[in-house]
TrEMBL record:
<protein>
    <submittedName>
        <fullName>RCC1 repeat- and reductase domain-containing protein</fullName>
    </submittedName>
</protein>
<dbReference type="InterPro" id="IPR009091">
    <property type="entry name" value="RCC1/BLIP-II"/>
</dbReference>
<dbReference type="Pfam" id="PF25390">
    <property type="entry name" value="WD40_RLD"/>
</dbReference>
<dbReference type="InterPro" id="IPR058923">
    <property type="entry name" value="RCC1-like_dom"/>
</dbReference>
<feature type="signal peptide">
    <location>
        <begin position="1"/>
        <end position="27"/>
    </location>
</feature>
<keyword id="KW-0344">Guanine-nucleotide releasing factor</keyword>
<dbReference type="Pfam" id="PF13540">
    <property type="entry name" value="RCC1_2"/>
</dbReference>
<keyword id="KW-0677">Repeat</keyword>
<keyword id="KW-0732">Signal</keyword>
<dbReference type="InterPro" id="IPR000408">
    <property type="entry name" value="Reg_chr_condens"/>
</dbReference>
<feature type="domain" description="RCC1-like">
    <location>
        <begin position="31"/>
        <end position="332"/>
    </location>
</feature>
<dbReference type="InterPro" id="IPR051553">
    <property type="entry name" value="Ran_GTPase-activating"/>
</dbReference>
Length: 513
């Protein structure tokens, strides 16, 4: 018989001794598919299509309807599902959904959210007039989108000509980028990258084109002159990937070599006087992916190891144990089988092949997402605030007249805003049963208890009661072939603690009558 699920959400806490019942299942942690860093925040895409953010929130970067109060652990962005990619600007974010629409939120004074206004948005809104989008990128205060027909669109700040529409006028809704140079060459764009004030487009023929600010040599021509339209970056051919940041740009060639130009020069000094055209980064080969950061660049070799180089002028350490390096590429310790990398202005991100997310660098605004504001000079693992599971503490069982009674005490930690703890149970084959869950919120915290059952495809709310001492409890009947699950969640974004255990006392009663 196919099991139909009985959704049963509860908040519980009590003191008894037990351990997990054999047929109690725990919810699996979802994995990270994409990540990107802003100035002082981070955004990540989960395997289930939801989007998560953490760090600074003065301008609604977290997308949860709030401002000012940031988070040092992941918080789910409201209203975005079925996402396939994300991008972070300095203080705004983009999400690309599977239907080809783009959604944005955060700081919007220059129209970088793209909803036709300059109103800061604390929850996602749809970018106007865009569909069939296949790639997105976010600069400091502007945004880019590539459509399936090869057209390129931009919106937001344009004081440096970063929108590529032939003007320096800010745009609160997307305008088409002029993807034709002065000689009449029309680009067939296959990839895009947005630096803070300059952009890159990768042509299908493997050439790279740039437009926008050239204050740090981002255009790559070897001079600081600012072109009036997009220009081809010299010294580059057979390029397969590009990336850009505050000062410098990177290109990955098909032979696995990495090329760099802009503010982080070959002497690895931030803002150095040398403005070279693209040069080959020494010591790197067999590279599969690249990421340009504010002060640090990353590359992943084909063996899954990560290498870093750049400058620590921004206070952002490259991780080599406890050392800081301002020399050519060095291997980042503590990572293996890395599948994707990304950077913020002052921090770095890596996703391993199993979907685990790691971060390191500066953390004053909680942008690393590890529940602290401590800087990290080595990668730390970050868990998205998806449903976690209770751990078994103790269990007891008794039989009376053919009725089985099992009692279990579980514990867990609601260690960050929005996190849920969850468990589930189903009666043995041929049995039906009843589940009763009880809990008391930890001192100084308030956890909500909700409960529902699924009967014949309908969600039926179950009344949850509370005793005078604060104990919340609920009971659900479990027919044969159904399952029950329960969960605990904080009442507000402040109701969490990485140090206080949440105890859930569960009674399972079942028989075959």
């Amino acid at each position: 018989m196919v099991k139909r699920s009985l959704r049963f959400m509860v908040i519980v806490c009590l003191v008894v001794g037990l351990v997990s019942v054999s047929n109690v299942a725990a919810a699996a942690e979802k994995t990270t598919q994409r990540a990107d860093g802003g100035a002082f925040h981070t955004i990540a895409l989960s395997s289930d299509g939801t989007v998560w953010a953490w760090g600074e929130n003065w301008n609604g970067q977290l997308g949860n309807g709030s401002m000012d109060i940031g988070s040092n652990a992941p918080v789910q962005v409201d209203g975005v599902t079925d996402a396939v990619d994300v991008a972070a600007g300095a203080a705004h974010n983009l999400a690309l959904k599977s239907d080809g629409t783009v959604w944005a939120w955060g700081l919007n004074y220059a129209g970088q959210v793209g909803d036709g206004t300059t109103t800061t948005r604390t929850t996602p809104v749809q970018v106007q007039g865009l569909d069939s989008v296949v790639a997105i990128a976010a600069g400091a205060v502007h945004s880019l989108a590539l459509k399936s027909d090869g057209t390129l669109w931009a919106w937001g700040a344009n004081d440096q000509g970063q929108l590529g529409d032939g003007t320096t006028t800010n745009r609160a809704a997307p305008v088409q980028v002029i993807t034709q140079d002065s000689a009449g060459h029309a680009l067939d764009v296959v990839a895009i990258a947005a630096g803070d004030y300059a952009n890159l487009a990768l042509d299908r023929d493997g050439t790279v084109w740039a437009w926008g600010s050239n204050d740090n040599g981002q255009i790559g021509t070897g001079s600081l002159g600012k072109p009036s339209n997009l220009v081809q970056v010299p010294n580059l051919a057979s390029v397969v990937a590009v990336d850009a940041s505050m000062f410098q740009c990177l290109a990955l060639a098909s032979d696995g070599t990495v090329w760099e130009w802009g503010g982080l020069q070959s002497d690895y000094e931030w803002g150095g006087d040398r403005i070279d055209p693209p040069f080959k980064v020494q010591g790197l080969d067999s590279v599969g992916s690249i990421a340009a950061g504010g002060y640090i660049n990353l590359a992943v070799k084909d063996d899954g190891n990560v290498w870093a180089w750049g400058s620590s002028e921004g206070g952002q350490p490259i991780k080599l144990g406890d050392e800081l390096r301002t020399e050519p590429p060095v291997q980042v310790r503590g990572l293996r089988s890395v599948a994707a990398i990304a950077t913020g202005d002052y921090h770095n991100l890596a996703i391993e092949s199993d979907g685990t997310l790691w971060s390191w660098g500066l953390n004053g605004q909680g942008q690393l997402g590890d529940g602290t504001t401590a800087d990290r000079n080595a990668p730390v693992r970050i868990a998205l605030n998806q449903t976690g599971s209770f751990q078994l503490s103790d269990t007891k069982s008794a039989s009376n007249g053919g009725v089985m009674n099992e009692y279990a005490l579980y514990y867990g930690y609601v260690s960050s805003p929005g996190q849920e703890l969850s468990g589930s149970w189903s009666p043995p084959a041929g049995f039906h049963g009843t589940v009763t869950v009880s809990m008391v919120s930890p001192e100084g915290k308030m956890y909500d208890l909700s409960m529902e059952t699924a009967v014949d495809g309908r969600q039926v709310p179950i009344t949850v009661k509370k005793l005078p001492d604060g104990t919340a409890y609920g009971t659900a009947e479990i027919p044969e072939g159904y399952a029950a699950s329960w969960s605990v969640k904080g009442h507000t974004a402040q109701d969490y603690s990485p140090n206080q255990k949440v105890f859930v006392y569960v009674r399972f009663q079942y028989d075959n009558r």
